[in-house]
Write a structure and sequence with these properties.
Elements: E1 2-3, H1 9-12, E2 23-26, H2 27-34, H3 36-43, H4 53-65, E3 72-75, E4 79-82, E5 85-89, E6 98-104, E7 107-111, H5 120-123, H6 139-142, E8 150-152, E9 161-166, E10 172-175
The structure holds zinc ion (ZN).
Length: 183
């Protein structure tokens, strides 16, 4: 099973490496990128202001996600797709962006995709990146309810994985660069 947090090129180019795997993503994300309107606007470089890169984004969805349509599992709401693996909406970076919460016993790992691109955003969920497509409401950060929950931040984060703790103001902050067993 492959879970797509969202359909930006750097998150979907490997889908065809797993030709027999079910591919999970939010229906809203799939329909946004596959819509004729989005494809047309990307071809005209009208969505992100990224010039020709938007043409690449449109082609990437067609080349990597569309061929997997027969094995797509599109989610309309949060879903536990396997024991302890919860996929839920974390919109903002893209309209149908998803995060993944993996639970095992008392341990949890939150994969945030590009919903957060820097650990500082855990403490400041109102900070957004220039690449945001539609501003999120911080629910992805708020979803990390327990101090000590593991989290994973994707490539732009200063650390690929680490732990969270509550700050004095009740917010979360990133502490440490690596996941380690809970004590
Ligand atoms: Zn992205």
């Amino acid at each position: 099973m492959v879970i797509l947090s969202h359909a930006h090129p750097d998150h979907i180019a490997g889908v065809q490496q797993f030709p027999n795997a079910a591919v999970v993503m939010m229906r809203k994300e799939y329909e946004f990128w596959m819509s004729a309107e989005t494809q047309t606007r990307l071809e005209a470089c009208e969505i992100y202001g990224l010039g020709p890169l938007e043409v690449v984004m449109a082609a990437s969805v067609r080349d990597h996600v569309a061929p997997a349509r027969d094995r797509l599992r599109l989610l309309d709401r949060p879903a536990e797709i396997a024991a302890g693996i919860l996929v839920f909406p974390a919109p903002g970076h893209t309209p149908g962006h998803a995060a993944v919460l993996v639970s095992s016993g008392r341990q949890q790992l939150l994969y945030v995709g590009d919903a957060l691109i820097h650990p500082a955003q855990f403490e400041h969920p109102d900070w957004v990146s220039a690449s945001i497509c539609r501003r999120g409401d911080g629910t992805h950060a708020k979803a990390v309810a327990g101090a000590g929950c593991g989290r994973s931040v994707s490539f732009r984060g200063l650390s690929p994985a680490g732990r969270l703790a509550r700050s004095k103001r009740g917010r979360h902050r990133s502490v440490g660069n690596r996941l380690s067993p809970r004590k």
